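# nightly structure sweep
# worker-07 picked up a monomer target from the shared queue
# config: single-sequence mode, recycle default, output format = structure tokens
# input follows
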Amino acid sequence: MRIAVIGGTGLIGTRLVTRLEADGHDVVVASRATGVNSYTGEGLAEALAGAETLVDVSNSDYLDEAAANEFFYGSTLNLLTYGAAAGVAHHVTLSVVGTDRLARTEGGYFAAKAAQERLVVQSGRPYSIVHATQFFEFIANIADAGTSRNLVRLSRALFQPMAADDVAAAVAATAVAPPLGRMVEFAGPERFQLEELVRRQLRLRNDLRDVVADPLARYFGTDLDERELLPGPDATIAPTRYEDWFAAGGRAYEPATAHPA
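# output follows
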């Protein structure tokens, strides 16, 4: 199967490409680094030529609603339009568990992600939307976002993070299957409070910042209820536990701009 991976050089994209190629698929790696810009449309027609499936794991460099919405709207509209012209039979989008709830209550980045999902759903194109929980690789970025004067203040919210390799496996399995026409959730096997797991990771990395639970702390500019980041009861549970990921050499991801997932 010929599969175009948009954002194919990023954290999830690189893992997804490796997995799909190992399974014998013909993979087109599409990102600005390979001369393909989904927002401007540069190189997009060539990247999608002959593709049966398009997988969008790209992300915005901005967390504010206006800038994120501009990126996701323009990019997704281009992908749907160019994909239809190329005869793409399955449009797969990676998004975040809790996007719909957070978009309603907080707006911001999550409102932009929700708008992206609506474009896909309302396009009339065959699609699947994958919702994943936060990645282990982003825990250090969550700490940095909550740090002020060497003190990390974090919401009391619960979450079920997962390894980026498990996210890539979930997206790959969805991409090679028939379109679902709906959203499907994936989550890690363990539930933590944000401050609990962030403190554990900082200590394991000999980072001595103090971590405290603060009911007024915001998560990438967003107020959280305790359960807003948790998946629903039908979520598929990924196999990798945090301790096993860390023992295997898990490393923090360091993007130019931290993202909430």
